[in-house]
Amino acid sequence: MALTISTPSNPSYLADDAIAKIHENPGFGVYFSDHMALIDWTSELGWTNARIVDHTPFSMDPAGSVYHYAQEAFEGLKAYRRADGSTWLFRPRSNAQRFANSCARLALPQLPEDDFVESVRQLVAVDSRWVPSGHEQSLYIRPFAVATESFLGVRPGKAVTYCVITSPVGSYFAGGVAPVDIWVETHYSRVANGGTGAAKCGGNYAASLLPQEIAYQHGCNQVMFVDNAEHTWVEELGGMNFAIITKDDELITPELNGNILPGITRDSLLTLAPEVGLTAQERPVSLAEVYEGLAKGTIAELFACGTAAVITPIGSLTDESGRHEVNVPADGGRTIALRNLLIDIQYGRIADTHGWTEQVC
């Protein structure tokens, strides 16, 4: 049976004019809405006490398991304000399924899909005034679960807190949609074979932070990782999936091999590819193939994709051997055509023929 989520009978809010001021320039992940969703789990009782409460700091013992053994998993999705004022989610059940898979890999309890979706829906409904209506703005939704048991032994925690917080956001990159320069990291690895690469968990992102700093030192916006065994095969960026568009109208992305996060934006683009004249392929992609394709002109475009940034053109790849330029089309090419198609579905500007969107209020 699905949990019943209690909601505040008289919720309090930041003043409307203050929220409107935040919406003028929300940034990304800087401001947070008035409320959050919480559900408790213990090994004795299972999932209990589902509720919407004020957004407030957690109180956790310094011996909390997550502090010591990083037993946590998270998700990222968005709520969109449409032209008629209604608010919609995009593929929340796919996020619920991925969250369950991530939790299973981290030895966390798996929240049922219906409870995940309902916790997101209820929170967005309560804080609907926080969903912005500006150009390509949205309400970013961050569900996560952390082991909270006070215990220093190395085993799965017997107490877990699931929480959902939200944040009004604009463009992930401060400059908006523009080609980004990528540092190709061939020494540090994001994940290892048999590790947590297919899970959305903090440890994967923590491992990417130092290489990201190295990317900045080389004048690049983001870092791309290759496999940890041969340092040959392209995997993904620090927080986004990687894709190629060829001169032969192919959309190619590295296949899911256990090291790559199964991105929901990635999956959506593979589905949408034929609608912009592309044939989608998932297969191993070597770094040498990418460099050769750029040199010979058989690769037309490169892009990165994910919930936060949607789709971002790649303008260059740089490694210790030098810089490899991408001739980004002046009109953005198929990359921007795909991007426009996806966001038009998300914002309800065209019909959703795939059943991906769900209205909240």
From TrEMBL:
The modification N6-(pyridoxal phosphate)lysine is found at residue 200. Pfam families: Aminotran_4. Its cofactor is pyridoxal 5'-phosphate. GO terms for biological process: isoleucine biosynthetic process; L-leucine biosynthetic process; L-valine biosynthetic process. GO terms for molecular function: branched-chain-amino-acid transaminase activity. Belongs to the class-IV pyridoxal-phosphate-dependent aminotransferase family. This is branched-chain-amino-acid transaminase.
